[in-house]
């Protein structure tokens, strides 16, 4: 009898797996003020603020603007796609897109503000194309890039 | 008896659970297989689209060289640029992590840019030199080699199939690369591109333009102390805010500076970058989110102007403004400085400074003068070759209606090269444009459309 119960317990998680949260990205509803502006500019603000949320939550404000600036600098470089969605969704380009973090929560008002500043021309990275956290394991290749500046825990390089 | 009944119930329950698990497993397997097939189809499509676009690039380059009229040359060169962009997009969609495709993407970017720069030269009436055509011919040879290699790879993939899934992940360091036609094909292409030199030209993607500009040389003067940086950074925008904590970081890199961050009790922070040489404040960003807007746009404009005046900026011309949304509680305004050339006022677009004003209190919440500090030099345009506004206006299409009088400006070409131009504000049908006529050659150089809405006046 105990053996039956043991087997039952073993199968239970499998049977109820469909009821557990799935890893399919869920797009949260955009804040109301986003819907108020139909301009396509907002598509870019939205996308960049999502990436900032995924890549730079907990970073200083200037570091958040820096992540937005990197996206825009990439759109002006031949090695990268020339549109904001092209850069953000480029396979393997950003960890938060690969692991679904950018869809995990709505961006904060500060993330939006950082994205707007970057789109309005603020670039605290002076033209950086890459950023990474030196405290985390990264590809050795990334250290061959020329470091431009450091903001918070991110190193920005070209 | 009771024990036997319990056993039966448990057995049934287990059978139900097992059935559910098997059903779930099958549905998951089907979903995974369907996703895998979709990914494979998308990547196959990207590969074959890539081959198609590269072949079209090569054909367009050949036709541009063979065309006799300027119109035809421009058409084919622009066509090459279009196919180069589409080819680069196709490469971006094929995540072949085990081969580095950076060189391939850069190649498409540069060849497309080179073709576009030549087409723009022809369109504005400049002469494309024999050397520049020879360079196009040389690039065309590389595109032809690339097309052949890609076509070969495509054939091998079509005939033998390719383990697309295996290429999704990077090859671990030290492991042998996968024996796959796609991997082999792209590795050979990468080897080929290593030996292709970049064209020498003046365009946004030319080698000299992609290099990081030497920014530090713009800052001269004695090295300031951390305490001085703290003082300069936090007082740049006048405030009586109390700082809960202040952090000063020494940052090396393109512009050696001190990053000064003052944190308020509510968690918002103000950061300023202060150059170590001379103590210039490059930019300031305040993360505070303004409350309900009380100030009008004109009120914000006045605040921005008096702030600039307080910082010693002379005559500044507003060049645009933008709010996040019409109801936003902050507005960014852009201002360009002016200079004088033979008694004429000249607006210097490359030296634009940006000011963000909070519409609740009228405080400046962000400021950026990096471009001003690194670009603002005395420009040298031979005054003898400057056209007058009447002469420049002759270039304008007669159907365009001029609004106001033209002004002399220094504007950047897409390559960053500066030109002295007459800026005409014109209207046609429902649209307003800024048309820039080169004041030294008399040719039309740049056309911008002015987009005015309740959330801004910007150009596109």
Please provide a brief summary of the model.
Chain A is mainly α. Chain A has helices spanning 2-16, 32-35, 41-56, 61-75, 84-88, 95-98, 109-119, and strands at residues 130-132, 147-151, 154-157. Chain A has a domain at 41-125: Cell wall hydrolase SleB, domain 1 (Arc Repressor Mutant, subunit A).
How would you describe the overall organization of this protein?
The complex is a heterodimer of chains A (158) and B (460). Chain A has 158 residues and is mainly alpha-helical. Chain A has seven helices and three strands, in the order H-H-H-H-H-H-H-E-E-E. A three-stranded antiparallel beta sheet of chain A has the order 1-3-2, with helices on one face. In chain A, strand 2 and strand 3 (154-157) form a beta hairpin. The model of chain A is unreliable at 12-38 (pLDDT under 50). Chain B is built from ten helices and 15 strands. Among the domains of chain B are: 33-210, no CATH class; 218-275, no CATH class; 383-459, Roll (Nuclear Transport Factor 2, Chain: A). Mean pLDDT of chain B is 88; it is low at 165-173. Chain B is globular and about 100 Å long. Chain B is an alpha+beta fold and 460 residues long. In chain B, helix 1 (2-66) runs antiparallel to helix 4, helix 2 (70-93) runs antiparallel to helix 3 and helix 4 (130-160) packs antiparallel against helix 5 (181-194). Classes of the chains: A mainly alpha (158), B alpha+beta (460).
β-strand number of chain B: 15
Relative strand content of chain B: 15-25%
Q: Rough shape of chain A?
A: globular
Strand order of the largest sheet of chain A: 1-3-2
Strand order of the largest sheet of chain B: 5-6-7-11-12-13-14-15
Give the chain pair forming the largest contact, with residue counts. A-B, 55 and 66 residues
- At the fold tier of CATH, the topology name of the domain at 41-125 in chain A is Arc Repressor Mutant, subunit A
As an assembly, this protein is heterodimer
Roughly what is the average pLDDT of chain B, rounded to an integer?
A: 88
Radius of gyration of chain A: 20 Å
């Amino acid at each position: 009898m105990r053996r039956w119960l043991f087997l039952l317990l073993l199968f239970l998680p499998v049977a109820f797996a469909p009821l557990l949260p799935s890893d399919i990205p869920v797009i949260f509803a955009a804040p109301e003020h986003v819907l108020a502006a139909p301009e396509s500019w907002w598509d870019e603000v939205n996308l960049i603020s999502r990436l900032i949320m995924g890549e730079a939550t907990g970073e200083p404000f200037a570091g958040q603007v820096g992540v937005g600036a990197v996206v825009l600098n990439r759109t002006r470089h031949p090695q990268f796609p020339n549109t904001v969605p092209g850069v953000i969704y480029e396979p393997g380009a950003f960890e938060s897109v690969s692991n679904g973090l950018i869809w995990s929560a709505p961006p904060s008002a500060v993330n939006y503000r950082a994205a707007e500043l970057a789109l309005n021309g603020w670039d605290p990275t002076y033209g950086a194309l890459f950023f990474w956290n030196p405290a985390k394991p990264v590809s050795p290749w990334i250290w061959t890039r020329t470091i431009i500046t450091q903001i918070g825990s991110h190193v920005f390089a070209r | 008896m009771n024990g036997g009944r319990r056993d039966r119930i448990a057995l049934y329950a287990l059978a139900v659970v097992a059935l559910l698990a098997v059903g779930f497993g099958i549905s998951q397997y089907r979903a995974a297989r369907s996703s895998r097939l979709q990914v494979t189809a998308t990547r196959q499509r990207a590969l074959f689209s890539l081959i198609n676009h590269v072949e079209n690039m090569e054909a367009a380059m050949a036709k541009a060289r063979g065309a006799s009229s300027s119109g035809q040359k421009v058409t084919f060169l622009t066509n090459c640029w279009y196919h180069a962009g589409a080819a680069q997009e196709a490469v971006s969609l094929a995540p072949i992590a085990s081969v580095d495709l950076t060189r391939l993407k850069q190649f498409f970017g540069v060849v497309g840019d080179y073709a576009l720069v030549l087409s723009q030269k022809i369109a504005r009436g400049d002469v494309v030199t024999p050397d520049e055509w020879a360079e196009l011919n040389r690039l065309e040879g590389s595109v032809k080699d690339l097309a052949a290699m890609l076509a070969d790879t495509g054939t091998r993939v079509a005939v033998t199939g390719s383990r697309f899934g295996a290429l999704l992940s990077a090859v671990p360091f030290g492991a042998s690369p996968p024996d796959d036609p796609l991997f082999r094909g792209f590795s050979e292409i990468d080897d080929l591109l290593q030996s292709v030199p970049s064209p020498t030209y003046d365009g946004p993607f030319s080698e000299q333009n992609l290099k990081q500009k030497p920014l530090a040389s713009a800052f001269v003067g004695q090295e300031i102390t951390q305490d001085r940086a703290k003082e300069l950074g936090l007082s740049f925008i006048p405030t009586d805010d109390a700082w809960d904590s202040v952090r000063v970081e020494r940052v090396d890199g393109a512009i050696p500076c001190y990053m000064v961050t003052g944190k308020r009790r509510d968690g918002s922070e103000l950061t300023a970058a202060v150059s170590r040489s001379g103590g210039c404040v490059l930019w300031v960003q305040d993360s505070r989110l303004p409350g309900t807007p009380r100030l009008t746009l004109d009120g914000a404009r006045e605040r921005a102007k008096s702030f600039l005046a307080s910082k010693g900026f002379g005559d500044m011309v507003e060049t645009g403004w933008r709010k996040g949304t019409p109801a936003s509680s902050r507005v960014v305004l852009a201002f360009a400085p002016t200079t004088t050339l033979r008694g004429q006022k000249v607006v210097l677009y490359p030296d634009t400074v940006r000011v963000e004003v909070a519409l609740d209190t009228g405080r400046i919440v962000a400021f950026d003068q990096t471009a001003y500090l690194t670009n603002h030099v005395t420009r040298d345009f031979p005054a003898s070759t400057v056209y007058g506004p009447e002469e420049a206006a002759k270039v304008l299409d007669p159907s365009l209606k001029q609004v106001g009088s033209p002004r002399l400006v220094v504007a950047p070409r897409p390559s960053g090269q500066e030109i002295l131009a007459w800026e005409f504000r014109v209207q046609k049908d429902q649209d307003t444009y800024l048309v820039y006529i080169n004041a030294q050659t008399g040719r039309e150089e740049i056309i911008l459309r002015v987009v005015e809405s309740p959330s801004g006046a910007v150009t596109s």
